[in-house]
Design a protein that fits this description.
It is an enzyme of class 1 (oxidoreductase). Belongs to the FMN-dependent alpha-hydroxy acid dehydrogenase family. Residues 354-399 are annotated as: Disordered. It holds the Pfam family FMN_dh. It is built from 13 helices and ten strands. The protein has 399 residues and is α/β, with parallel strands linked by helices. It has one domain (18-363): TIM Barrel (Alpha-Beta Barrel). The strands form two sheets. An eight-stranded parallel beta sheet has the order 3-10-9-8-7-6-5-4. The protein has a two-stranded antiparallel ribbon with strand order 1-2. Strand 7, helix 10 (247-255) and strand 8 (260-263) form a beta-alpha-beta unit. The longest helix has 32 residues, at 321-352. The two termini are 37 Å apart. Residues 2-12 and 384-399 have low confidence and may be disordered. The site of 2-OXO-4-methylpentanoic acid (COI) has 7 residues, from helix 8.
Length: 399
């Protein structure tokens, strides 16, 4: 990667950076280039960061079952979601303010993902307008939504997304306010004045540059599952719920009419102490019973991690921080390289475990959990839930 133009760069001594070969390499490069408080905002989690650490640790503890003489030449890495084929089961999670990592921001990320046929979920707090991002994209775009106290602001975003060709909405359901992120509190972190939530310009929700304080003022804490149907009604778009970790919430989401569920703990940034996403996945998959596709984000850093998530029932995964790290390390080309590395690793892992297509990847691809390792156990048996029915089922044909 070429040297970045900003930040306390380790490249100050003129040494070229080594070509990144893994997603962890991108993180190291980004850390050298970003101002420390920006690094902390991106890398950090809530509380003692136990969940943040667990997300990667649980993937690290997975053991794969190889296939000898697999006889797989070129695996077909593609998957179908909401009726659209992705080149591989990986997309970019919604992450606020891409301009924090690189001045080219979200359009550069969208172009990079599009070049590889992979989707991008644009954040409500994108630093560029969703129309501008759509202009740069050539693969599916979804728009992530926070619901503000002024519902009109959020509903307007949903309509704008539809008008700009976005294919789905992703309602984040784990964030009545942002978690207690101690790094940001200690750093007094504020988003630099020249970087703004472009899609909220002029709205009642545009406000403080301090994400934690702003979320406590502006987000609707009284939100319930009926908002899924409302979003669908105003936009006609399928709505996914992001931030589901339990069977009861998965059931509530499906009953509310979601077109998909994203198993997520917000990258360990919300409630510290909740399970790693790979741990939570079997419970959610069991509860959903195939009615809608299940995605996962949090801690995915290798192609083998993608395989593990698919083996436990995810249709696809999303990566959050790696996108910003790659953007910081090398702008749009950095993101493209990061995604190419990840999908190439995934393809290799498919061959070495004997899978010609993603459809054959199942639990028998993983070794059984070993005592003492934080691996996901079998899903609990389906049981009755106490969730009220809040909205008609809609869009269940998707995926
Ligand atoms: C800097 C940063 C900003 C984020 N912004 C949002 C956001 O605006 N909306 C949202 O739903 N999730 C947001 N997330 C959470 C991600 O969508 C995703 O759940 C998480 O990053 C996945 O974990 P990973 O970073 O380990 O891949 C953010 C995460 C980070 C690190
Ligand atoms: C601006 C924030 C609300 C974005 C976010 O969701 C996060 O930082 O995790």
């Amino acid at each position: 990667m070429t040297s970045a133009t900003r930040g306390p760069a380790g490249a100050a001594f003129g040494e070229p950076d080594p070509e990144p070969l893994t997603l962890d390499d991108f993180a190291r490069l980004a850390r050298r280039r970003l101002p420390p408080e920006v690094w902390d905002f991106i890398a950090g989690g809530a509380g003692r960061e136990r969940t943040l650490a667990a997300n990667e640790a649980v993937f690290d503890a997975v053991r794969l079952r190889p296939r000898a003489l697999p006889g797989v030449d070129e695996p077909d890495t593609s998957v179908e979601l909401l009726g659209v084929r992705w080149a591989a089961p990986v997309g970019i999670a919604p992450v606020a303010y891409h301009e924090l990592a690189h001045p080219d921001g979200e359009p550069a990320t969208a172009a990079a993902a599009g070049a590889l046929g992979l989707p991008l979920v644009v954040s409500t707090f994108a630093s560029r307008t969703l129309e501008e991002v759509a202009h740069a994209a050539s693969a599916p775009l979804w728009l992530q939504l926070y619901c503000f106290r002024d519902h009109g602001t959020t509903l307007d975003l949903a309509r704008r997304a539809r008008d700009s060709g976005y294919q789905a909405l992703v309602l984040t359901v784990d964030t009545p306010f942002t978690g207690r992120r101690l790094r940001d509190l200690r750093n007094g972190f504020a988003v630099p004045a020249h970087i703004t939530p472009a899609n909220l310009a002029g709205s009642a929700a545009a406000g403080s540059a301090t994400p934690g304080a702003h979320s406590r003022l502006a987000f609707d804490r009284g939100l319930d599952w009926s908002f899924v149907a409302r979003l669908h009604a105003v936009s006609g778009l399928p709505v996914l719920a992001k931030g589901v970790l339990t069977a009861s919430d998965a059931e509530a989401a499906v009953r509310a009419g979601v077109a998909g569920v994203v198993v997520s703990n917000h990258g360990g940034r919300q409630l510290d102490g909740v399970p790693a996403t790979l741990e939570a996945l079997p419970e959610v998959v069991a509860a959903v019973r195939g009615r809608v596709p299940v995605l996962l984000d949090g801690g995915v850093r290798t192609g083998a991690d993608i395989l593990a998530a698919l083996a436990l029932g995810a249709r696809a995964v999303l990566v959050g921080r790696p996108a910003l790290y790659a953007l910081a390390a090398g702008g749009g080309p950095g993101v493209r390289r990061m995604l190419a590395l990840l999908t190439a690793e995934f393809a290799d892992t498919m061959v070495l475990t004997g899978h010609p297509t993603t459809g054959t990847i199942g639990p028998d691809t993983l070794s059984p959990p070993r005592p003492g390792l934080p691996l996901p156990g079998p899903p609990p048996p389906p049981g009755p839930t106490t969730v009220p029915r809040t909205a008609p089922h809609t869009d269940r044909s998707h995926g």
